[in-house]
Give the backbone structure.
Amino acid sequence: MTTYSFPVKRIGIVGGGQLGRMMVAAAERLGCTCVVLDPTPNSPAGQIAGKQIIGNLHDAEKLREIAEDCDVLTYEIEDIDTTTLLALQNEGHEIHPSPQVLALIQDKLIQKRAYAEHGITTSEFVEVTEHSEQAFADFGYPLVQKARRGGYDGRGVSIMKSANDFSKQLPIPSLLERFVPAKKEIAVMVARGKDGSTSTYPPVEMCFSNENILDLLLAPADIPKKIANKAEALAIQVVEALNGVGIFGVEMFWTEDDELLVNEVAPRTHNSGHQTIEANITDQFEQHLRAVIGLPLGSSKQVSAAAMINLLGEPGSKGKQIITGLDESLALPSVCVHLYGKAVTSPYRKMGHVTVLDDNIEKAREKAMKVRALLKISGEDPA
């Protein structure tokens, strides 16, 4: 029988946003302490962690400082200096998911090539070597252009339905992907432990806003059992191909031909797993920590249907946040509000999320839409 002293582990989290905040809360339940690295003083995660190091995520000295202060290092964002992480790993510091995985994921072209090399189904793609109308036409419309690096929450993505949309092209290193007319976009959260054990969460359906930000999530996804099983197996295949340790968000298209195509993978906790805090026995944040510190993975069983919405900063304002509709929203049954503690808001910035539970997924959706109409976060100043 293994014995532990307190704290069980001292965990370093690179990035102090909302994902780090929810990870710190899970770490405390497991008897762990956390150190957060983030450039913003009093960051969302830093507010509740035992310690925050103020520093840039590409600052080699700060990355070394947090690694040397902790038993294991993980992260809640991809935009990190992997060269330093690789050097720290080579010196014996434990980092999960590994810097090699992170470096691969950071470049969407290399990520897609890795899927092809491992026989993982994904949409057709090519590297953009020439930003010309002819080059895009040769690939064929409709298409999706993606920045190789740095894109997230709709940034760095341009959907072009025809040659008339060429003016929307991104003049940066990028790739072109075949536009997939999907029945639904789904995601599977999958955890893999240091011992190679895996655990998947039931697939969820993702509905996106015009800004290409996740607007509504339905858990579980309304898809055939055969497709759900296939999605979970594909997610495991992806993480095993990467030799990943930790939790991964695997986004997929369910096509009109009943194929599943991997879209992108996040090597961290993910927006498509927030509802697990209330709806599953072990939430994604605890599951990730169990994996990276070597504890047995928990049960990912879902115990309630759930709908989740993001709370985004209202367009047209910025600055110190003003929250309206909180009382009315919390008066509805089984509504769980999570505010991230960000000091200021701006248009479409993620400020929180709401999970709504119900025995019936459609009723959960209806309540979520009521909350969407009631609960608003705006700023004191015009944008």
